[in-house]
Structure formats: structure tokens, C-alpha cells
Specification:
Blueprint (H helix, E strand, L loop, with lengths): L8 H15 L7 H10 L2 H10 L4 H19 L1
Helix pairs in contact: 1-4, 3-4
């Protein structure tokens, strides 16, 4: 699924912060890297993100939980 609408700079910043917090990292991510991450989000999270925005608290919480679970799977 391709990105369904243009993501504004504030949404990129918020998504960036969620990923950094979830990964406990200080590695900066480019907007292109964040676009790649968006592409692999589960469909339900991606749908809510495009409907409500990446600035929505529930969307950010879902992304945080999903990303942490992805990290845990990769380290097992």
C-alpha cells in the first residue's frame, strides 16, 4: 500500500519521536526512512493514521506498541 496522502512536517516529527522513544535510541531518521516504516505498518494502524493523522495520540500509542514488539521479535 502506498502512502495515501501527504504527511506534513509536524507529523514526521511526531512519528520520529515515537520511533526514537520506542527504540530507546537517539539515531535520527530521515523522512524517507519514516516513509519506509509507514509502508510496513499493519493495515489497521496505517488506516487510522491516515484517517486521524499521525499526530493523534491513539495512533502514536499504537505505533509505539507495534514498533516495540517488532524490535523484540528481531532480538529474540
Amino acid at each position: 500500500m502506498k502512502i495515501e496522502r501527504k504527511i506534513d512536517e509536524i507529523e514526521y516529527v511526531l512519528l520520529h519521536d515515537v520511533i526514537l522513544e520506542a527504540s530507546d535510541s537517539d539515531k535520527s531518521l530521515s523522512n524517507e526512512e519514516l516513509d519506509e516504516l509507514i509502508e510496513i505498518l499493519p493495515a489497521n494502524i496505517k488506516g487510522e493514521a491516515f484517517a486521524w493523522g499521525f499526530n493523534d495520540t491513539c495512533v502514536r500509542d499504537q505505533i509505539y506498541v507495534w514498533y516495540q514488539s517488532e524490535l523484540m521479535e528481531k532480538t529474540e
